[in-house]
Amino acid sequence: MPISVLSQQEEDENPTEVVTAKVSINVSGLKDQTTEPIQGALVEVFVADAAKPKKDITDQAGFATIDEIPLGRAQIRVRADGWEAEVKKIQLDKQEKRIDITLQGLQPPGNDDDIEADSPET
């Protein structure tokens, strides 16, 4: 009975391929009913098997791109001065994905519109 043996060359031609994704993130901010791109926001992508997140900073148009993220579940965190941080869980199931994230503007301390002061009765 013949025995089939793969040569080293045949094994090298079929390496195990690790598939990764490229994620484009568009970060905008909503303040006073208007939306604007946020420049300089820190975008971090966390994956389960990585010790450190992959990071990028948004450009003038509010875009950041992070490459070589393993397919599967990931979490995106976006932070920018003057804006509430946003965390979004995503599923990467294709090699390119675009995510839109809108941050909410922070209210200045002591400016809470939900609290009405008691007015004196006259």
Instruction: Report the biggest beta sheet as strand number plus sense, adding barrel if it closes.
Output: 4 strands, mixed
The CATH C-level name is Mainly Beta
Strand content: over 45%
- Low-confidence runs: 4-11, 114-120
Radius of gyration: 23 Å
SSE order, one letter for each helix or strand: HEEEEEEEE
How confident overall, as mean pLDDT? 81
Can you characterise this structure?
By secondary structure, the chain is mainly beta. It has one helix at residues 8-12; strands at residues 20-31, 34-37, 42-47, 54-57, 63-70, 72-79, 86-92, 96-104. The model is unreliable at 4-11 and 114-120 (pLDDT under 50).
Give the structure's gist in a few sentences.
Strands 1, 2, 5 and 8 form a 4-stranded mixed beta sheet that branches.
Task: Describe the SSE topology.
Blueprint: H1 8-12, E1 20-31, E2 34-37, E3 42-47, E4 54-57, E5 63-70, E6 72-79, E7 86-92, E8 96-104
Parallel strand pairs: 1-8
Antiparallel strand pairs: 1-2, 1-5, 3-4, 3-6, 6-7
Please describe the structure with a list of short key phrases separated by commas or semicolons.
about 120 residues, mainly beta, Immunoglobulin-like, 4-stranded mixed β-sheet, 4-stranded antiparallel β-sheet, 1 helix, 8 strands, elongated, disordered C terminus
